[in-house]
Design brief:
There is one protein chain. Helices cover 39% and strands 20% of the residues. It contains 14 helices and 17 strands. It has a 5-stranded mixed sheet with strand order 8-7-6-9-12. Strands 2-1-3-4 form a 4-stranded mixed sheet. A 4-stranded mixed sheet has the order 14-13-16-17, covered by helices on one side. It is globular and about 70 Å long.
Length: 460
């Protein structure tokens, strides 16, 4: 794979965007056939894409190397419990085997089944024309600034809360916590409750509560979230699933509450600030969170769980401990990425430090313009530029807004500069229409909790 802009500390990096482009170039000169992939979720909502692949029997292994990655990418970008494969019996068999019990994508199968509370299945259609029709649903997102509001943002390393009166933040606080390593859900409950009580104390009343949180949410219920990684399945079902609603009831009965994925809130914050649409928001913190505001300024209901979307086609790339898969975004656009690259940069991090503390060490070196730290952010920036080109195949993007702890300080500036260079050099057609934006430091740190406050509409 020939890359014009290298990932300095990761010479084996094989970006999905270039992998797909080179596959298309190869297929154009060989016997081919059309393939359709569709992902179906609740209420029959469905997203699909079509592409040409090598004819069945020509090189099924080559086809599968891309098709399996695309199916997974669509599943985590859009969400769903049913995959439709049309036009290739060989690729259907490949995907069906991967998502079978005990298959390589068993984690994805089980999590999607749990989130949508439906058995997971892979369906086949002989012809691409037989794929179910595209069906979408979107809803207006936030932008409610009237009244006295609490905005809460739950990250894996810190939690942020804001008290907002008629659109102005009168109080904001950021507190370090460790939700991913705590088995007792009361730790999480009390931390969330304490933050909200702090915000409530700075207002005459609470009219609404908006929550931005890493994970997957349906009807304000927690369906899956790495914040509760160590909590048992029994405690999750009994005490975690309705935790945000339970905490909010302690603040006040019948207060409007809205819970959204933190990536969607990132996108919302960007759309509000930019006064525009087609915003892909990405929060680089404990994990990678994604969110999207469409051309009408609405949230689509897609999962946007970019942490699990593969961005590296190198099968020897680092494995994500949770999903057991390689090349996924979480290892490229989070504090894990910084930690992963530290040895290659020549930085030895104390194993006794928490991931957040390790990140701070590298950021401290970045402030000193240490060459090793610069190389880490340079590499993440190259990762990001190639990933944006891949995301642009899944989303209609005019703006990419980047937030999160990893982007704090000069590291974020360098990261975006290198990403822009990748787009300018490798994908000039995208560089001409996609704007990369990084908010100011205050917005990067507490902007999501303020945007979260605007999520619920007041009762009339």
């Amino acid at each position: 794979m020939n890359l014009k802009v290298k990932a300095k500390l990761d010479p084996q990096f094989a970006p999905m965007s270039v992998f797909w482009r080179e596959f298309e170039q190869e297929v154009a000169g060989r016997p081919s056939q059309p393939l359709g992939i569709a992902v179906e979720r609740n209420q029959g909502l469905l997203e699909s894409l079509t592409l040409d692949i090598l004819r069945d029997g020509e090189d099924d292994k080559r086809n599968a190397a891309l098709v399996e990655r695309l199916a997974k990418s669509m599943l985590w970008a859009y969400g769903g419990f049913r995959l439709h494969i049309a036009g290739s019996r060989a690729m259907y068999e490949c995907i069906r085997a991967a998502y079978a019990p005990g298959g390589t994508r068993e984690f994805d199968r089980e999590l999607m089944s749990r989130v949508f509370e439906q058995p997971f299945e892979v369906c086949y259609a002989e012809n691409v024309a037989d794929l179910p029709a595209l069906r979408r649903s979107a809803s207006p997102a936030g932008r409610h600034l009237d009244g006295c509001r609490i905005g809460f943002d739950a990250g894996g390393s810190d939690r942020k809360v804001s008290a907002v009166i008629d659109g102005q933040a009168v109080f904001s606080e950021e507190v370090v916590w460790h939700p991913k390593i705590n088995t007792d859900p009361d730790y999480h409950y009390q931390g969330i409750l304490s933050a909200m009580r702090q915000a409530a104390a700075h207002m005459p009343r609470v009219d609404a509560i908006g929550i931005s949180s890493a994970g997957i949410y349906v009807d304000n219920k927690i369906m899956a979230a790495s914040l509760f990684l160590k909590v048992s399945k029994e405690d999750f079902a009994r005490r975690v699933k309705t935790m945000y609603l339970d905490v909010c009831r302690e603040i006040g009965q019948d207060i409007p509450v809205e819970v959204a994925n933190d990536g969607d809130v990132t996108a919302l914050a960007g759309a509000m600030d930019l006064e525009d649409t087609n915003v892909l928001g990405i929060a680089m913190g404990t994990s990678e969170a994604g969110g999207y505001v469409d051309g009408q300024g609405n949230i689509t209901g897609w999962l946007n769980e970019l942490a699990f979307v593969p961005v590296d086609a190198n099968e020897q790339a680092m494995i994500d401990e949770w999903s057991g898969d390689y090349g996924c975004g979480v290892k490229y656009f989070s504090q894990d990425a910084v930690i992963k690259l530290a040895p290659a940069a020549g930085i030895e991090l104390d194993a006794a430090l928490s991931p957040a503390e390790k990140l701070k060490v590298v950021q401290g070196l970045m402030e000193q313009k240490d060459r090793r730290a610069l190389d880490i952010y340079d590499t993440i920036g190259a990762y990001f530029g190639y990933a944006i080109a891949y995301y642009a195949r899944l989303y209609d993007i005019k703006h990419v807004l980047v937030m999160g702890r990893v982007t704090s300080g000069e590291g974020g500036v360098l990261l975006l500069a290198r990403a822009q260079e990748v787009l300018n050099t490798e994908f000039p057609e995208l560089a001409a229409r996609i704007r990369l934006t990084i908010p100011d430091e205050t917005s990067r740190r507490v902007g999501q909790s303020i945007a979260a406050a605007s999520l619920p509409a007041l009762k009339k």
